[in-house]
Amino acid sequence: MEAMKMSKRFFAFGILACIAIYVAYIKWHLDSKQVVGATEGVAESRGDKLNHQALTAELSVFYGIMFDAGSTGTRIHIFKFTQQPKETPKLTHETFKALKPGLSAYADDVEKSGQGIKELLEVAKEEIPMELWKFTPLVLKATAGLRLLPGEKAQKLLDKVKEIFQASPFFVRDNCVSIMNGTDEGISAWITINFLTGSLDDPQKRSVGMLDLGGGSTQITFLPRTEATLQASPAGHTTSFRMFNNTYKLYSYSYLGLGLMSARLAILGGVEGKPCKLRALLEYWL
Fold it and tell me: Which residues participate in ATP binding (predicted)?
């Protein structure tokens, strides 16, 4: 497994979670029958006069919208893909915008959380051709920021986002808004970097391991060279998934509370929502 250093900008943009979710939707686009079945009723209910099946079958350019709801901010990634027949889709363009603070900051004012989501959706409307809106999947995945909230507060925030998504012109499913668990976040990071380096397309190319340092948690994920490594791993530290006709067995573990911001608060003796008592230390760290 090769080591790889990523720029701070790459992590700051939250692309780890975002592109990985798009990968799940690649399957959705590759299977044209599933796409037609999922959206045909919507097209008919809106009186769409286009031949939906023909459009889907010939579609070589498509988009995906991913909201990354992290502990330090909410980001939208608008991905544009091109695909040749019988080939893996290729990412050709990304539009990115971020707003602060994160969704978790609105735990006690849920209505206010919707303002930023609506603002970011306007960016998507400007970037994506109108005729493709109803075929463009829209997803939000929240990470450690919401995992650290009490369940009821986190759910209210998710419900608000889902309400806004369902009122949008984009394609949404019942599970379009959710909180990623730590293992899935690690898998997402691993898929992202190995998709970008081409390791998923070339079995002869070594995969890249990932250490994802977020604001509220840290994930470590890699593909072991031998089965013995997996067998020697602690319970709950391994996982497997199937993608593109291949099964991947990974080591993946998330350390909740050991993200950059959470660890900093713990070191300084602070708590969420309260200023550090030691001003000298605060100035030193910030």
Answer: 215-219
Tell me which amino acid residue 271 is.
Answer: V
The pLDDT value recorded for residue 94 is 94
Can you tell me the mean pLDDT for 174-195?
Answer: 89
Superfamily name with CATH number, domain 8-179: ATPase, nucleotide binding domain (3.30.420.40)
Where do the DSSP E strands lie in the chain? 61-69, 74-82, 90-99, 138-142, 177-179, 210-213, 217-222, 238-243, 246-256
Distance CA 197, CA 223 (A): 15
What was the pLDDT predicted at 264? 84
Residue 273 structure tokens:
């929502």
Distance CA 92, CA 100 (A): 27
What positions carry a catalytic annotation?
Answer: 185
Q: What is the pLDDT of residues 203-258, one digit of tens each?
A: 778 899 999 888 888 989 999 988 999 999 998 899 998 887 888 999 999 988 88
Q: Is 217 annotated as a binding residue?
A: yes
The response to whether 236 counts as a known ligand-binding position is no
The fold of the 202-285 domain, in CATH, is Nucleotidyltransferase; domain 5 (3.30.420)
